[in-house]
Amino acid sequence: MPRRKLTQEEALEGTIKFSERYVERRAYEFFPEPEVVAEVQRGLAENQVEHGYRYCP
User: What is the domain count for the chain?
Assistant: First the structure.
């Protein structure tokens, strides 16, 4: 059975949760400008919708 394609909103929500967990569990911090972080998260979510993976934008 093929997987259902995520909506942009679902992908963005999942990407934000993923990136927040990633930063919490490792010795990383988000870039200090929230607009930049949001743009990267949007790019990752868009790639997930288009290609099925969170490719780096």
Answer: 1
Output b/e per residue, 10-45; b: 16+ Cβ within 10 A: ebbeebbeebeeeeeeeeeeeeeeeeeeeebbbebb
What is the amino acid identity at position 35?
E
Give the tens place of pLDDT for each residue, 5-28: 899 999 999 999 999 999 999 999
Helices of type H across the chain:
8-25, 34-51
* Domain membership of residue 26 as a residue range: 8-51
Q: In the chain, what's the furthest Cα-to-Cα distance?
A: 42
